[in-house]
Specification:
Layout: E1 9-14, H1 19-26, E2 34-39, H2 43-59, E3 65-71, H3 76-85, E4 89-92, H4 98-107, H5 114-128, H6 133-138, H7 148-158, H8 163-170, H9 174-188, H10 193-205
Parallel strand pairs: 1-2, 1-3, 3-4
């Protein structure tokens, strides 16, 4: 009896059609995956795509189906809408290392590119009104399920640090940091770094 392995499906959604050829050339190792490209030209098309993404996210329980958005750094509002509709990786089309960012967006799905992190995190803090950032780090002592390395990573995530910055601060590889972030997500039963931040901000309100 033969078992069939479902191919990984990667959908690239962009607001700049010229990026498609660059993506295809740069992501040779993902050619075995089912690659789909969509160019969104107006708000109505983006809204329809977001609604479809929400339905597909509910349909697929595994990470076989991934959505990678490539949008402009000025589209902060669009980034928030995308995240509210379901899982996705969002990268900035202005990135000087677009292919590297694309690779990270697929490997560490869902992933939020640095240009969009600051505004999203500020919104989380503002909406939940934490007393002060120092309180958030002190409360980690009561979380027995995390080892010290994981607590250190949470501490830096609360400061808005990227995986690369945390690796530099803790003298670890980016791979090690990302692996630990995955463990933290599992323990909190969340799907993104933003949700990790949100969890601790809400805990701080209690």
């Amino acid at each position: 009896m033969h078992t069939t392995t479902q191919k990984e499906s990667i959908t690239f959604i962009m607001t700049d059609a010229s990026l498609q050829s660059k993506i295809i050339e740069g992501l040779i190792k993902y050619q075995e995956a089912e690659l789909t490209f969509h160019v969104m030209n107006n708000h109505e098309e983006i809204r329809a795509c977001l609604e479809l993404q929400q339905k597909e996210t509910k349909k697929y329980s595994s990470q076989q189906s991934k959505y990678i958005w490539i949008i402009g750094e000025e589209d902060q509002r669009l980034a928030k809408d995308i995240l509210s509709y379901g899982q996705a990786s969002i990268i900035a089309k202005e990135s000087s290392c677009l292919i590297k960012s694309m690779d990270q967006a697929i490997k560490h799905y869902p992933c939020l590119d640095l240009p969009f992190q600051k505004d999203i995190l500020e919104t989380v803090y503002r909406n939940n009104k934490p007393r002060k950032i120092e309180d958030l780090t002190l409360s980690l002592a009561s979380y027995k399920e995390f080892n010290q390395t994981e607590k250190d990573i949470i501490y830096y995530l609360l400061q808005g640090k990227t995986a690369e910055q945390i690796a530099e601060q803790t003298y670890n590889s980016v791979h090690t940091i990302n692996n630990n972030i995955v463990k933290i997500k599992r323990k909190l039963n969340v799907k993104s770094k933003v949700e990790i931040i949100t969890h601790f901000v809400k805990q701080n309100k209690k």
